[in-house]
Amino acid sequence: MDWDDLRVIHAVVGTGSLSAAARRLGLSQPTIGRRVQALEERLGLILFERGADGYRPTPAMEALLPHLRAMAEAAAALEREARVQADPGTGLVRVAADGWASRFLAERLPQLREALPGINLAIDFERIVPDLGGDSVHLGIYTAVPDLPGLRSRLVARSAYAVYGLRAYVDSHPEAWTTDRFDRCDWVIYDRERVGGTSPITAADPVRARLAAAARVLRLTTTDLILSALLSGAGLALIPCFIGDADPELVRVSPIVPEMEHRYRLVVHQDVGRSPRIARAKEAIAALFAAERRLMEGEAAPAEPAGAPVTA
């Protein structure tokens, strides 16, 4: 039986449509359709129910799925091992990270280049951990790691959060230093409902609820937009200390908010991580976070006195 045909079937099961399977495999939709029909004829089985909502596995296909998935995982493992064996220790390493972590890496590319001669880094902004078992993304830096087979992670940073504002805004709004900030200041917040994101920090919900209930709130959907709005003087924002303390235009007006601590983990597939170039990049990135520990944890304290706590 031709594995290429089985790979097509696996993609159709995983995506639920010919067009999505075609995009995943880089083939045309008619080619996918012909492969499905040819395999059905060869097996003497109807594998999918065709409907307006896509392709749904028939009972016969459901019975074959455990074997198909085992073959797909074996094929993927073989490809990963082949890449490890062929890896010369140099080349492209693609790193995915959430908004704040991707900015942290991008601003430190010169240090990473110096630490990784022969490695070409690519940094992708992804809100959630992408598929790390293939060759499209090799490493991830995230606070929430899915429980998936083969994924391994290590803690590389604890990120503290506090309230910041543009110096000019804070100077004209002295209440930013007090608990009156919620009623009398403008706020820039991350629109979690709009984005549909999740957070592992359930204890921080009261903090987010208080921010969302502030008198004047601007909701934005990316970290870049939040930082741009903050630097324009749009109001106050609760952001990582490694972002706020590193920018001389911003002033920290609250103590660290312990409920908002984010723990960043460096994530890799166990097979991909054995590749020499991936292993080199992994250690260099971990060392970079370690070198910036004080900044990450908010210990690079500003000269201004701390304002009122967020949860007071």
From TrEMBL:
GO terms for molecular function: DNA-binding transcription factor activity; sequence-specific DNA binding. It comes from the Bacteria. InterPro entries: LysR-type_TF_proteobact-type (IPR058163), LysR_HTH_N (IPR000847), LysR_subst-bd (IPR005119), WH-like_DNA-bd_sf (IPR036388), WH_DNA-bd_sf (IPR036390). GO terms for biological process: DNA-templated transcription. PROSITE patterns: HTH_LYSR (PS50931). Residues 1-58 form the HTH lysR-type domain. Keywords: DNA-binding, Transcription, Transcription regulation. Belongs to the LysR transcriptional regulatory family. This is HTH lysR-type domain-containing protein. It comes from Inquilinus limosus MP06.
